[in-house]
What does this fold into?
Amino acid sequence: MLRYLIFLTSLSALLLGARLLTNSARHMAKAAGISEFVIGATVVAFGTSLPELASSLFAMHSTHSGLVVGNVIGSNIANIGLALGLTSLLYPIYVSRQISDTDVPLLLASATATLVAFIDLQVTWPEGAALIVMYLAFIKHEIDSHRRSQAASREKINGRQIAAFFAGMMLLYFGAKYLISSTLAISLDLDLNESLVAFFLLAIGTSLPELATSIIAARSGRPEMVMGNVLGSNAFNSLIVLGSCSLIAPVAADSSFLITTIPAMILLSFLLGFMALNNTITRLEGILLFLIYLVLSINLI
It folds into this structure.
């Protein structure tokens, strides 16, 4: 029970640290006069995936790449099947033309790139570097295409936000550290594959910000934030998290885990792409996404 308590405590610290870090970084970006779009495309997108990145880097530092694979693929599947599925089940989501023309192709490209990278059951550093370059090229294209965006009015530097930034860094560090150690201990107790434990514990836990943000945004009538949040997080996980971890050491994966989860991730990604063509994710489609997630989870168990 102590290990599960440590897991929940460290997960809470990780999520709180990511939120403090993102909010303070957004404040500092506004103080520097950076436009709202650039802040959204970089700081906010980065912030919502900080839990996955921090926990995955610590897993690689501990030479447990199975946790990284389960975390990345599990988060991507949970973001679509769980977060977007449940959200659209409650509130049908409108998909703008910009998202269907830009963000959806990035999602499909990142999912396909993940499949290609894992063909030999590992992601090496040249492949990881290519994934990172792919993401940075997209961000550069997005910023260049929105150069007309006006810079936000400068804000005065707030001392509390600076303190929150460093507090967020500390919480992120210790949260990720003890989250990985407790996850490893739980996997040993249950005598289960690391990737499988990461798929359920790490992936669902680190996807909680996406789930909460999506439901709140949909209820507030901001569907673009819902889609941008999920699609951006998946692309970041596949390209930046996986790519960054491979620079530390090759990210090796278990073939039995990949055979089940990679096809599900590809299926959900392309299903979402087809759904976006109609400019609305309906309640029925939300049920379908959620059911696929449930069937996959039961199959893995």
